[in-house]
Amino acid sequence: MGAMWLESHRPVLFSELVADATIVSTLTRLSLQANPPHLLLSGPAGSGKTAAYRLLCRQVLGPSWESTTHVLQARDLARTAGAMATFEAFLRPEGSGSEDTLAGRTSLDAFEPATFLDVVEFRDTALLSFVTSAIIVPAYDEVKRDFGIIRAEYMLLLSLSHFPVLTAQDISRLTGRPRNSISRGVHRMLKEGFIERAPDPDDGRQAKLTITATGRELHKKIAHYVKSRQDQVLSVLQPDEREILVQLLRKTALYSTTLGTVRLNSVEASRVYL
């Protein structure tokens, strides 16, 4: 009866966790970090370790947390015949001779992109992001390996290859890259001789940037990497399908430039869990 009551009345919010306020505050803060640390919760039976663990998993993993979260109460196995066999079955659900393990089921190696893209709440955004990452990440990895150039630095070369004179602020606005990363890229590109800088006669606080012949040649080489990866990913489409995709993306991209930036409050977004 006690176990059933604990199951049906377990806390669903951190504020409902019966524990020291400092502990609750610490668990809440850690669960909201972009990269939560590894945690080891210790304490006597009934102190709330499992309840805290469930809350942490729910906050970090989101609505589908229960599908990848598993709890085995060691105390339930104490002084029980076959306890080790039960534990082994927990770790290897399909039997001792199977290669199917709990760790394998919940690892990213077992991740099915199609399943995620079908169920995620913001499906369209996830699809756009997935395709973009499939192109950009491998391409820039190769660019960094072969040329030692990072993305912000290439954004400088790309922008100045198509616009003869720009400021760092112009490039930040064109590419959507943070101003500080563009500024760091400017220093490196100047040092390497890929761009040149001259004072802005109309604004002493700004500097006019132009690309050199060496920088333009480097841009062409890097652009080939990105375009090759782009063509590889989009090769699944027929030419007319790809043209329709481009038209739709262009329409959406141009419209997005008319929208203001909306910032979500992380606490408000997480209120259902906190």
Walk me through this protein's architecture.
- The chain has 13 helices and two strands.
- It has helices spanning 2-8, 21-31, 49-61, 83-91, 102-105, 113-119, 123-147, 151-162, 168-175, 179-192, 213-234, 239-256, 266-269; strands at 195-200, 203-211.
- It has a two-stranded antiparallel sheet with strand order 1-2.
- The longest helix has 25 residues, at 123-147.
Widest sheet, order of strands: 1-2
CATH-level-4 superfamily name of the domain at 123-236 = Winged helix-like DNA-binding domain superfamily/Winged helix DNA-binding domain
SSE class: mainly alpha
CATH architecture of the domain at 123-236: Orthogonal Bundle
Please tell me the overall pLDDT.
78
Low-confidence stretches: 262-274
Order of helices and strands: HHHHHHHHHHEEHHH
Q: What is CATH's topology name of the domain at 123-236?
A: Arc Repressor Mutant, subunit A
Largest sheet: 2 strands, antiparallel
CATH level 1 name of the domain at 123-236 = Mainly Alpha
Radius of gyration: 27 Å
Strand content: 5-15%
Described by the principal axes of the CA atoms, the overall outline is elongated
Range of helix content: 55-70%
Give a count of the beta strands, DSSP E runs of length 2 or more. 2
Number of contiguous helices? 13
How widely separated are the two ends?
28 Å
